[in-house]
Amino acid sequence: MCRWAAYRGEPLFLEELVSSPAHSLIEQSVCATRAKTSTNADGFGLAWYGDREEPGRFRDVLPAWSDCNLKSIARQIRSPLFLAHVRAATHGATRRDNCHPFVHGAWSFMHNGQIDHFDRIRRSMEAMLDDEHFNARTGTTDSELLFLLAMQFGMKERPLAAMSEAIGFVEDLSRHMVGEAKVRFTAAFSDGKTLYAVRYSTDAFAPTLYAGSMGNKGGTCLVSEPLTDEADAWMEIPPASGLKLGDNGLTVVPFTPASRPDLAHPHRAQPAA
Length: 273
Hints:
There is one protein chain. The chain is α+β, with helices and mostly antiparallel strands. It has one domain: Glutamine Phosphoribosylpyrophosphate, subunit 1, domain 1 (4-Layer Sandwich). 24% of the residues lie in helices and 29% in strands. The chain has helices at 15-18, 25-31, 70-76, 118-128, 131-136, 142-152, 159-178; strands at 3-13, 44-48, 56-60, 78-86, 102-104, 107-115, 183-190, 195-201, 210-213, 220-223, 235-236, 241-246, 249-254. The strands form two sheets. A seven-stranded antiparallel beta sheet has the order 3-2-4-1-10-9-11. Strands 5-6-7-8-12-13 form a six-stranded antiparallel beta sheet. A hairpin with a 6-residue loop joins strand 9 and strand 10. Helix 4 runs parallel beside helix 6 (142-152), helix 4 (118-128) crosses helix 7 (159-178) and helix 6 (142-152) crosses helix 7 (159-178). The longest helix is centred in the middle third of the chain and has 20 residues, at 159-178. The protein is globular. The relative contact order is 0.17.
């Protein structure tokens, strides 16, 4: 399972999440403590927002702890909103196009978790994409494909609802084709203004998610696991939650997948024999 950290607030140097804390994201790439896999060595990525609408992005396939550029970039870049991710691959080869965060226009997205039976439903998921979003796909991961489905379902206008419908569509498709659905999903996504997150799973093992303040910086970070040993400084987000972090602070709402009958096309996906 992957590890990630996201921040929104007063401009902050990326190193304050990526490399400086005692249990920074780079440290978690070597030894995560609240993940199924303790080592996250299949690449890393950063997406940050500045003066332009679209985010800057830096990704590579090296382990985060061994890339000679990552600490330097994190030390120099300051941003009011950024996403950072270290990858432990479940679907998709170790290559740059498969490293998170993924970007489409002004939106960025990163994910920890997996879609079971992805190899059996992938083609039908791709068939749901229109030309714009299909042609935007550069990698082979379940994460990027789910992100593009949510974009097509209206993420720009209603981010959490579109993500709910994308996951609901995947679950319906998996039940139809395979006979069961299993999704583990903890993700962060943003348009550069508001930061959103979801913690969800079809079973009792949703990947972890915590929220904490950045001291006197006036900002909030969302993380897969705490960046420090100060237990009281971190609030665990319960499963089946959607988060919105904007000018009015952090809002947590219930999150459940939503089925859309108009997206159910059984002729696209034949049941498994």
